[in-house]
Amino acid sequence: MITKDSSKIEVIAELEKNALALYDASDELKNDPDVVRVAVKQHAFALTFASASLQNDPEFLLSLIDNSILVVGFFNEKFLNDYTFMTKVVKKNGLALPLASKEIVDRDLVLAAVASNGLVFQYVGVFKDDREVLLTAFKQNFLALGYVDSEYKKRSEFMLELCALNVKALHYADEVLKKDPGFMLEAAKENIDALIYADEVLRSDRQFIFFAAARNIKALYYASEELKQNPNYMLDMASRYTDALKYADETLTKNPEFMLKVLEKNPPAFKYADETLKKNSEFMLKVVKIDADALEHAHETLKNQREFMLAAMEENVQALQFADKELTKDPEFMLKAAEKNVHALEYADAILTKNLVFMLEVVTKDGLGLIYASEELKRDPKIVSAAVQQNPDAIKCISKETLQKPEFAFIGKSAAQIDQWLQEQLPKNLELKARKNAYTDLLEQQIQYLSPGQKKELALYVLNEKEHFLKKERHFFRFEAYSNQTFSIHKLVKTLLEVKPTDGKISIHDEHEDKTHVLYRHK
Is 424 domain-assigned? Predict the structure, then answer.
């Protein structure tokens, strides 16, 4: 209960519960802006209990509008007739316009009011036909269009103009316009979301949606469910527009046959396949056959599955570009992949293509794997020799500069070429014995650069050459003969094959000639 003796704190506390209690407050508190403001916030009528000074203070009155527009109804009549004051009021809240004296309401005051609150358009009277007033109100609040004369809502140009400002204007468009394909296409041209207001007949019309989608594929979002479920229609749209399936019914994106047809016509559209398909290994293998790049959209559980990725790369080796990184670092997995297709190594992690043991195993099975070896390994004679022995074409992977190094002298060379090279390095005019010794000594120096296969081939080559100088024997009476039982031949075979005599004999089988050479003279 407020009395004349109540303190400011007590009065404010009471006013928050009962604004009209201001009537019982002291004159001092009725003249206190803070106290009156609390009361008016609770009930606009409380302004009538404020001091005359405050009720005639224009700045104080303007400050009250922020809390309650109804308070304007309790302003002194002189303020409601004051054009300058009321202009300030409607700029703060246009809904005060109906409270202004009719004598002062003009076009400028109306424009100021609707610019502040578009809904005040319902109170502008004769100014409803003023184009600028209407547009100003609409821009502030599209709901103002609800108070526009129905004749305006039938005018296509007018409604298109409003649609360009705010597509929600079409909510108020005449039903005839909403059924007009030409009008709705023009509206959609400005804003594709205009189609939400199109008549259902249009949204079910194949041709209408087709033309709308040609401008913006989002038109399919507003197409009827019947169209979005139609496999023939949606396949045609997907073949033209990648994002068409973004709006397709899930019965289609879950359909494996439909999605395979989509993949054939427009591979990028496959990204919209349902997750259930992307997890299906059998389905995704069919996908890889059509387009390996579509594997990008496979579920992660498939990308790190060994059996699936091996099967996928058999269909198309490019599938490995989408394999989980842990698989491409796995030597066992990548060896299996390389056995199926050596080009799988294009997708191997660098940690493997730099690994000597791994790459040696690769090139002994397919020399062309050398293509994918690190540059350092391509300069390793052991790797290069093994690769070239498996596939002579592997030598094309090595730079000319590398091949000029001495350790690469025998890479890719036949036994005859190796023998010729060794003989060409010998000093001229040596006696037979000295020449033989020089040859075998040189061989011991160079043997580290020969592959196991080359060692055996060279041994067999010399054994099969009828008049190789290492076989030459000089007898009494200067009679010359050639034999595989010379000391030099024995030394050559032992050096190349690193074998020890068995029962005083050394045997070496020639698979090409299907015969066995037996050396038995020297131990």
Answer: yes
- Distance of alpha carbon 411 from alpha carbon 403, whole angstroms: 8
Distance in angstroms (rounded) separating the CA atoms of residues 228 and 239:
15
475 pLDDT higher than 60: no
Rounded Cα–Cα distance for residues 16 and 393 (Å): 96
**For range 137-150, the mean pLDDT:** 93
Classify 515 as helix, strand or coil: strand
- For residue 497, tell me if it sits in a domain: yes
Mean pLDDT for 139-143 is 93
Identity of the amino acid at 177: L
Are residues 413 and 454 in contact, defined by beta-carbon separation less than 8 angstroms? Answer: yes
Separation of alpha carbons 463 and 508, rounded Å: 10
- Judge whether 429 lies within some domain: yes
Q: How many domains does the chain have?
A: 1
User: Does an H or E element contain 156, and which?
Assistant: helix 156-165
Q: Is the dihedral of CA 34, 40, 42, 48 positive or negative?
A: positive
Q: Which two tokens stand for residue 155?
A: 């005018």
Domain containing 496: what range?
415-519
pLDDT band with cut points at 50, 70 and 90 for residue 327? very high
Task: Give the C-alpha separation, 471 to 435, whole Å.
Answer: 12
Residue whose token pair is 């006013």: 15
Residue ranges in 48-97 assigned as alpha helix (H): 52-55, 58-64, 77-80, 83-92
Q: What pLDDT sits at residue 247? A: 97
Q: Does residue 443 lie in a domain region?
A: yes
**Whole-angstrom distance, CA of residue 332 vs CA of residue 424:** 45
What is the rounded average pLDDT of the residues 399-415? 83
What is the per-residue pLDDT across 219-269, written as a single tens digit (0 to 9) for each?
Answer: 999 999 999 999 999 999 999 999 999 999 999 999 999 999 999 999 999
